[in-house]
Amino acid sequence: MKSKLLELSVGCCLLLAVACDSGNAKTEDATANTTTEQKDGKKKKKDKNPATQGFDVNNNYDLQEVSKMGKKTVPESSGLEASSDGNFWTHPDAGNDAVLYKINQSGELLETMNVQGGKNNDWEDIARGEDGFLYLGDMGNNENTRKDLQIVKVDEKAKKVVGTIPFKYADQTEFPPAKDNLNFDVEGFLMHGNNFYLFTKNRGKGDWVKLYKVANQPGQQQTVQPLDSVQITTKITAADISPNGRTIALLGEGWVYLFEADSPDNAFKGKKEQIPLGKTGQAEGLVFVNDTDMMISNEKGTLYMLSLKK
Q1: Predicted TM-score of the model (pTM)
Q2: Which of 155, 167, 181, 199 has its C-alpha lying 20 to 30 A from 60's C-alpha?
Q3: Element housing 19 (H / E)
Q4: Average pLDDT of each block of 10 consecutive residues along the chain (310 residues)?
Q5: Cβ atoms 183, 210 nearer than 8 A
Q6: Ramachandran region of residue 117, left (φ > 0), alpha (ψ -120 to 50) or beta?
Q7: What is the rounded CA–CA span in Å between residue 65 and residue 157?
């Protein structure tokens, strides 16, 4: 009997010891984890401009600052496009005069064009058509309240407005819409064939970039439906298409997003990549200089060249 009691006592002691060790181990693990977290990190800050799911990260590009425009000569750069003589046109946005600035790659001001018949409600991007005309995207819509959205056709030689293409969004019925649905602002558009393709800068919820198509038909206001949408983690501020028509580039904060497609109508259905830029300030202008390389400008007038590595 005594021996059985002794066995039971020893067994209980062993169980207690194991339980204590287990508890201590958990405490030590927790402490170790906490210590590791404290040593390794101070809590990691949330990435302000994370990579977008579904996009391959393309590290085969180099970004180089090439020049700065003079603040007194070019106070703001909100869009960027090639001029007919191989230089670049840029422009300011809302609150500024209806002017275009011609610059070279060194950032030097070559010409200031006062656009006759133009009004800068909120010019956000510029494109060149195969017809030789310049087209200004007067579609900035921060508050999502505008009912006078339009694309302005400019004769580069005559330096004047020769037509407007007014449009409205079929899926916008409130001005402004609910806070979560503030997705009717556009800062990036491109022209391909005889159509314009608009990419929204989502100020609402869900990171959805919507794609709209506007026909190059001056005169009566068009009502346009969204063609497609894609989720992108940063806000889109510029757009362009490569000269061969195969690659679409969208400019976001810290990234350039590339889409391979047979047509801009199918922009979001093909291969998707994103190129990390690093710090470029508030970049708002982008134009292809060949089928792979792009010139980028930020609002303060710094010019960058984004080049495919040799």
Answers
A1: 0.86
A2: 199
A3: helix 2-40
A4: 41 40 40 40 71 97 98 96 97 96 98 98 97 97 98 98 98 98 98 98 97 97 98 98 98 98 96 96 98 98 97
A5: yes
A6: left
A7: 31
